[in-house]
Each structure stands twice: as C-alpha cells, then as structure tokens.
Amino acid sequence: MTVAQISRWLALVALTVWLPSISVAHGMLTRSQPAADSEIAQLPEAIRLSFSERVESRFSQVTVHRALRDAETGEVKPQERVDGGMTEGPAVTQELAVRLPEDLAAGLYLIKWQVLSVDSHRTTGRFTLTYTP
C-alpha cells in the first residue's frame, strides 16, 4: 500500500466516524424534571427540560396542555393550554422551564416542546405527566 492509499483510507475512516456525530448533534431532550411520562403527587413550580445541545430560548417553546387519552388507540390528544409561560433565562441555554399554575387540577397533561438548537436545527417532542394530588 502506498502512502497516498493509506492517506485516502484514513480520510475515509475519519469521515465515517465524524459524519454520524454531525447528524445527531441536534437539541434532543435528555431529561425532564419531573420525569417524562411519570405520575406526581407534589406539584412543582415549573417543569424543567434539559437538552443535549444549547438551544435558542427566544425561538423555542414549551407548553403544557390538559390532555385526553383515546380509549381505543391510546393516543394522547391535547386540550386547552394551562401553563403560565416559560421562565426567564439566558438567550442560549441547555435548559428550558415552563411555569405551572398553583391551582392545577388533577389529571393527565401533555407537555409539548419545540426548540431551535444553536446548530440551526429545529426539533420537537412531547411527553405526558399525570398529576394526582
């Protein structure tokens, strides 16, 4: 094998390792407090979401909706929005939070998020939270 062939082979290996890391470098949800799809008895002041990458808070949104679960399909459908808006924070951050009202009724809630990560990719997601005081 010549030096040129070895160099091309090493470049190909490097690209194979490097390119997949670019494709997954979007702001994905890594953790929430309370935990996603959990049941809680104590109501927090806010729901906090942590992301794998820094996100632009001005171009991101987290909302909380009362929800109904379809008895036949199990699909969770959002109803009215009930949150108190997002909390103030830095323009670029890895954590967003949305305030909850103190008088939140017991039930199933759908938390929806949409973020713009600093790599300019938009990602969305949702999870449920059941409040049983």
Would you give an account of this structure?
Strand 4 and strand 5 form a beta hairpin. The protein has one domain: Sandwich (Immunoglobulin-like). The protein has one helix at 3-23, and strands at residues 29-33, 38-40, 46-56, 61-69, 76-81, 92-99, 107-116, 122-131. It is of the alpha+beta class and 133 residues long. It has a five-stranded mixed beta sheet with strand order 2-8-7-4-5, with no helix packed on it. Strands 1-3-6 form a three-stranded antiparallel beta sheet, with no helix packed on it. It contains one helix and eight strands; from the N terminus they run H-E-E-E-E-E-E-E-E. The chain is 16% helix and 47% strand.
Helix content: 10-25%
Series of secondary-structure elements, N-terminal to C-terminal: HEEEEEEEE
The multimeric state of the shown protein is single chain
| pLDDT averaged residue by residue | 88
How many runs of DSSP E, i.e. beta strands?
A: 8
In the CATH hierarchy, the architecture is Sandwich
Share of residues in strands: over 45%
**DSSP helix count?**
1
Estimated structural class: alpha+beta
**What is CATH's topology name?**
Immunoglobulin-like
Low-confidence stretches: 17-23
Overall body shape: globular
What gap, in angstroms, lies between the N and C termini? 71 Å
Rg (C-alpha, Å): 20 Å
Number of domains: 1
Largest sheet: 5 strands, mixed
Strand order of the largest sheet: 2-8-7-4-5
Class in CATH?
A: Mainly Beta
